[in-house]
Specification:
435 residues; alpha+beta; two-stranded antiparallel ribbon
């Protein structure tokens, strides 16, 4: 008996007992739908965590720093031993940039003693120096103007966050109303003021060094941190850092290494592995992936419970399939005997009943998937109406749908193993005598 004959006979036998086959498929349908929906709720909870964390920051960004302040001195590692801290230098950042999944690695230097001013107005925000070529890759958006051009000579180019505009005020005034001053931002003359607090006058005012600057672009205020900061290109700033080294070091800022760096990874799934590589270099790092992993671990038991509930329903379906196939064997005992007398191989007889069980699982799985999507839509509609869909919803990705259908077929085949063995063990003579 060929495989084409086995498939044809299996479908014919199932069709002869349409009602019983359909009722058995309903059991598999309920089992499949239970597993898919329950697992989808667990996936939805995790996705809700990822979405909520993503809203507060880029989930593919890693913040890197030394295990001690500016990488000097010793620190205690995870094993309790003393280890010398690694400094975050240009060379180390280049090594991180060369890692497989790293898109960009940029140093970040917060310059609290450098303020930006225009006319009598001065911002109380400090300047942040980054790799100018990495600004766009870091997720810094420009709503108006451009990114760093690198063509300003000795003029420092500034990317200004929209949320920083209201910080420009006359230091001698008492205006704190948050209103934006009337400034022609792109054409106004700006200066960056370096304040030397180690060199003050009799009134305690620091000595100031001024450098020409101009605004080249605006960062939109979209809820992220970038819209509330001012950025300049590290390459433009390095000559100033080297020239006024003592001034910066006097305020706790080193010019030959960085307190932290920003690393952008190509995909969220590669963040934790990249963090491990960076940690092995002797550096400390943190990302949103750490928070998401912690949240996923805390819900792991909940997901197991949800999957277990669906598994119970599938177990009931498996028992139903097994019972249906046993009844089919008792009803077709004479038919089995005839096949054996005609020389049909035992393995082919067993395969016939396994195929029937598999078709029941396949039909039930297909109907279960349809029911799963319907239930998922209803759940999400109810949660959407109640305002809870951001933190709790049903998500059925393609791999879950395919796995659910495949698992239903597998359950059907496994449930048909015992009945098929009984069919193979039947005595041909006893089967032919059966009425």
């Amino acid at each position: 008996m060929r495989w084409s004959d086995i498939f044809r006979f299996a479908l014919t036998n199932l069709w002869r007992r349409k009602l019983r086959t359909f009722l058995t498929m309903i059991g598999a349908m309920i089992g499949t739908a239970s597993i898919v929906v329950m697992v989808s709720l667990g996936i939805g909870i995790n996705q809700g965590y990822i979405d909520s964390v993503s809203a507060s920051g880029d989930i593919t960004t890693i913040t890197v720093n030394s295990n001690t302040y500016y990488g000097s001195g010793m620190y205690y590692d995870d094993k309790g031993g003393e280890t010398e801290s690694v400094a975050l230098t240009d060379q180390v950042i280049s090594q991180i940039s060369a890692m497989e999944h790293v898109k960009v690695a940029s140093p970040r230097l917060d310059l609290y003693n450098m303020q930006v001013k225009t006319g009598k107005l001065q911002s109380y925000y400090g300047l942040i120096a980054i790799d100018g070529n990495a600004a766009e890759d870091m997720g810094i958006k420009v709503s108006e103007g451009s990114y760093f051009t690198g063509k300003s000579g000795d003029t420092i180019e500034i990317l200004l966050g929209e949320g920083v505009k209201s910080s420009f005020r006359n230091p001698k005034s008492n205006r704190w109303d948050g209103s934006e001053p009337d400034i022609d931002w792109f054409n106004a003359k700006f200066t960056v003021v370096l304040q030397d607090y180690n060199n003050t006058d009799d009134e305690g005012n620091p000595k100031e060094y001024e450098f020409k600057a101009r605004v080249v672009g605006f960062i939109p205020d979209d809820g992220g941190e970038y819209g509330y900061n001012m950025y300049c290109d590290m390459e433009q700033l390095k000559p100033i850092l080297n020239k006024y080294k003592k001034v910066f070091e006097g305020s706790g800022t080193k010019v030959d290494e960085y307190p932290n760096a920003v690393v952008l990874v190509d995909d969220f799934n590669n963040v934790l592995s990249t963090q491990e590589e960076i940690t092995e270099m002797g550096l400390n790092c943190w990302s949103m992936a750490d928070m998401i992993k912690s949240l996923e671990d805390s819900t792991k038991s909940l997901r197991l419970i949800l999957g277990g509930i669906g598994g119970v329903a599938m177990l009931v379906a498996a028992i139903s399939i097994c019972n249906t196939m046993l009844m089919s064997i008792y009803e077709r005992t004479r038919e089995i005997g005839i096949m054996k007398v005609l020389g049909c191989k035992m393995s082919r007889i067993g395969a016939l009943f396994l195929t029937e069980a598999g078709f029941i699982g396949l039909g039930g799985g297909a109907m279960g998937l349809i029911l799963s999507f319907i239930i998922s839509v209803i759940i999400n509609a109810v949660l959407g109406a109640s305002g809870s869909i951001d933190s709790f919803r049903s998500v059925i990705p393609p791999y879950l749908a395919i796995s659910g259908a495949a698992f239903s077929v597998l359950v059907g085949i496994v449930a048909g193993l015992y009945p098929s063995r009984r069919a193979m063990k039947l005595s041909a003579l006893a089967a032919l005598r059966n009425e």
